[in-house]
Amino acid sequence: MQRFRSLLSIINQRARAAWLIIAFFAFWQLAPSIGLANPVYLPPLSRVLEEAVTVGFGQLAHDVLISVWRIILGFFIAIVAAIPLGFVLAGAFRWVSELLAPLMTFLSQIPPFILFPVFIIILGVGETGILAVIIWSVFWPTLFSTIAGSHHIDPLYVKSARSMGADRLSIFIDVIIPSALPQIMTGMRNGLTLCFMMLIGAETMGASSGMGWEINMAQRMAVIPRIYLMALIVAVVGLLINYLFEWLEQTIVVWRDDAQRELVVT
Amino acid sequence: MITTPAILKAERSVVDGPIERIVIKGVSKSFNTRQNKGRRGAAAQPFLAVRDFSLEVREGEFLSVVGPSGCGKSTLLDLLAGLEAPSGGTIYLDGKPVAGPNQRVGIVLQGYALFPWRTVRKNIEFGLEIKEVEKKERLRISQHYIELVGLGGFEESYPHELSGGMRQRVAIARALAYDPEVLLMDEPFAAVDAQTRETLQEELLSIWERTGKTVVFITHSIDEAIFLSDRIAVMSSSPGSLKSLLEVDLPRPRKTDRSSVRFGQLRHEIWELIQQNGHGQRQLEEQLVIKEAEELLVIRTPVRA
Predict the structure, then answer these.
(1) What are A1-11's pLDDT values in tens digits?
(2) B279 burial class (0-12, 13-18, 19+ CB within 10 angstroms)?
(3) What angle do CA B278, B282, B287 make, to 5 degrees?
(4) For residues B304 and B203, what is the distance between their CA atoms, to the nearest angstrom?
(5) Does B280 touch chain A if contact means CB atoms closer than 8 Å?
(6) Who contacts B219 (Cβ-Cβ below 8 Å, separation ≥6)?
(7) I want to staple A194 with a disulfide (CB 3.0 to 4.6 A). Which of A137, A261, B154, B282 is the partner?
(8) For residue B302, what is the DSSP state?
(9) Inter-chain residue contact A164 with B130, CB threshold 8 Å
(10) Which residues of chain A lie closer than 8 angstroms to B130, CB-CB?
(11) Is the CB of residue B106 less than 8 Å from the CB of residue B82?
């Protein structure tokens, strides 16, 4: 009964949130028609959705897939570089990481978006520049969280592994990596959120495909409904990526209880 | 200097005559304290944690080490486990000097130290994985120890899903699983409530009786030491050294002995020994008085059979 009631309350909460979204879209639809907003600057939702037909679903799917593929590729390259480097800096060369910390913090503060023109000059126009932006966005948070995660390992875990005869390699694999993993995942997620934003920006500046490029084209041709359409699609794709990563995190880090979760977030 | 005010032969050891499992010979341990936290003027002076400590632990015996906080009890345990190398002297385990961490000793640390990313079963199997025991055999052994500590049904639970007492049982099972000759325990029950603590003590005794392991048990609780042990080593602090070695002449099994007259006498004797600690360490003494008061309160509450 208790369980049933809590289930009901969850459904109720979800439904309330859903109602709010429906109300938002309804308002969007109505506001321009009843004269609350200028339909030129804020076309009704139906007009925005119609635009999808004009652009063509094939083209839209292409835009989305291109953008998502860039993220997957850049994200993968960044974590493959950042995680091992983080472990090496944190473990083997702690003094190096302490020495480099101020410089790395400084570099990480530069928004990759600003660096984009530089990347273009160095790497040329095209995919490489966009990939560089994504890699830059994911690399720093992942690197920092790997270093922090491996510095904050409870020495008791290492001690008890050592007492059971574990050598350095198995301590690294069986203790250090799983210990640091929750924090690394948090860093990866921050990087993912950031890189998605940066990707759209980069695509508006120097790409010939992708969601950002589509927005840029719409802006140039002043097709206002298309801008809104792309904004909607970007929001939905961003949400889906976020959910997917959250699910992945919960599947991998099953042991993390709520107390630890709070600890990692703050 | 070893004074033994109460050498009373325990019946257990008389039967076969004592055989030494562990021989600690004139062991010292000093640390180079680079950052002397809160100790002004003592920069870069080596801190002597344990001085000239000698003790023999008999085969199959339950020996407790008590003493004020900071007397080097935990350092002693690290030395026994091979986690730290002594600065002087040698520790022999079955005649062989202890050179580093090894699976001849199992260790149960303060605060469980279970791996949160491993299930109960996987935690218990850790030492077996290091030993490269094959999977089927690992499963059989871990199941045996899970049942020995009464955690059947919790094989696939994660530590954060268990209570403090249950976690401690997992820690004991984990230390026993790779079949060490000696079980070292560092204040294992310090973090659990008084009720659970008594239950765990009784369970530990029953596990000890069934497995016949040699146990070295470090505690700050005098009552715990008396209830569990064959012998009690009392340490004094700064630097940590052996003050006295007492034989606990209470009959086993000891389910209801906590309130007996002899128990009280022993408690008083050990308490006095710890009190006599030189150096006028008022703080430590006050701490002990508080602990003692707490323990008395525990004793007054009826012991469950």
Answers:
(1) 666 777 777 77
(2) exposed
(3) 115
(4) 13
(5) no
(6) B64, B65, B66, B187, B189, B190, B225
(7) A137
(8) P
(9) yes
(10) 164-166, 170
(11) no
Complex ipTM, two decimals?
0.76
Banded model confidence at residue B272, pLDDT cuts 50, 70, 90: confident
Residues A132 and A193 both lie in one domain:
yes
Q: Do A65 and A30 reside in the same domain of the chain?
A: no
CB contact under 8 A, A164 and B83: no
Q: Could you tell me if A34 and A83 lie in one domain?
A: no
Residues A222 and A187 in one domain: yes
Segment A227-250 mean pLDDT: 92
Nearest CA in chain B to A182: B117
Average pLDDT, chain B: 80
Residue B38 confidence (pLDDT): 47
Contact call for residues A165 and B99 (beta carbons, < 8 A): no
Clarify whether residues A57 and A27 are in a common domain.
Answer: no
B80/B182 Cα distance (integer angstroms): 10
Domain that holds residue A158: 43-265
Give the gap in angstroms from C-alpha B83 to the nearest C-alpha of chain A: 7
Is there a single domain that holds both residue A147 and residue A22?
no
Name the strand (E) or helix (H) holding B56: strand B46-58
A125 and A254 part of one domain: yes
Domain count, chain A: 2
DSSP for residue B255: S
The alpha-carbon radius of gyration of chain A (Å, integer) is 23
CA of A22 vs chain B CAs: smallest distance (Å): 39
Report which of B23, B87, B85, B80 is spatially closest to residue B51, judged by C-alpha positions.
B87
Q: Report which DSSP code applies to B240.
A: B
- How far is the alpha carbon of A220 from chain B, nearest alpha carbon, in Å? 52
Are A191 and A75 a contacting pair, CB within 8 Å?
yes
Q: Is B126 on the interface with A (CB under 8 A)?
A: yes
Euclidean distance between CA atoms A64 and A86, whole angstroms: 32
Q: What is the CATH number of the domain that holds A94?
A: 1.10.3720.10
**Do A37 and A117 sit in the same domain of this protein?**
no
